[in-house]
Amino acid sequence: MFNIILFEISYRLRRPATYAYFAILFLMCFLFASIDALTIGGATGNVMKNAPFPVNQSVMIMMIFGTMIVSAVMGVPVFRDFEYNFHEIMFTTPVKKFQYLMGRFIGSYIICIFIFSSLILGLMIGAAVVEYMPSTVTVKKGPFMMMTYVQPFINYILPNCLVLGVLFFSLGSLFRSQLAIYVQGVVVFVMYLIIINLRTDVENDPTFALLDPFGFSASFYQTRYWTTSEKNTQLVQLTDLLLYNRLLWLGISLVIGAVSYRLFRFSKSGLN
């Protein structure tokens, strides 16, 4: 299995698309953190650009928009083997089904984490060089706090890449359709935006906060009454509804993974 993980990582690191995804996400977050006119994370009024609240919101929102990137990375490993007929070799080796699927999944998941770490790097570097950026307005910047960037990585990047990764990897492995692989990310993204827009009071709905797969609503629920001072100094903690939300969706992803593992077989057809 370890060799399969290394192969998947090596393959992805040789693909220009991996660095293109990284560069796009990095540049967007870099600009959000360094230019006053651009913001998606609530850095308005007296809230500092590099404060915990806007950094948390920026990572969370960019993870939602990155759904299609997760689909493109996690949906193709098994399909690729069938597309190039490599499965005919793979399935005649002593490699077991568990080793094969876990190797492909873990390798792709590591690459997904690498790509989305660009969000953290973009926000950190953007905040570090903000005073050197051309602007007619002085960007409000507070002191550097490492946990401001570590917490969103733990709260959103690690679990969301896993939850979405299991879903897209499972669908891609079972249906082995290029159309399905690239459409599934768009479908999930659009459906999520529709559901969010249909909710009239997302910030005060604990049920929806628990059921939101991205953790977006749970974060809003936790911070809905925060003052400007709290937004500048207080971290979004992995507690209460946000913790329950993360645990719930990790559990759901394990169920999806177990079902897809049961249905997957070493043959041209993806389903039993």
Spell out the key features of this protein.
272 residues, mainly alpha, globular
Explain this structure.
This protein has helices at residues 2-13, 16-34, 52-65, 67-74, 77-83, 87-90, 97-128, 147-175, 178-198, 206-211, 216-223, 228-233, 240-263. The chain is mostly helical and 272 residues long.
What's the topology here?
Blueprint: H1 2-13, H2 16-34, H3 52-65, H4 67-74, H5 77-83, H6 87-90, H7 97-128, H8 147-175, H9 178-198, H10 206-211, H11 216-223, H12 228-233, H13 240-263
Helix pairs in contact: 1-7, 2-3, 2-7, 3-7, 3-8, 4-7, 4-8, 4-9, 7-8, 8-9, 8-13, 11-13
Proportion of strand residues:
under 5%
The helix/strand class is: mainly alpha
Q: State the shape.
A: globular
Range of helix content: 55-70%
Give me the oligomer status.
Answer: single chain
What letter string, H or E per element, gives the SSE order?
Answer: HHHHHHHHHHHHH
Overall pLDDT score: 86
**What's the main sheet like?**
none
CA distance, first residue to last residue: 23 Å
- Number of helical regions: 13
Topology, number of strands: 0
Unreliable runs, pLDDT <50, ≥5 residues? none
The rounded Rg comes to 20 Å
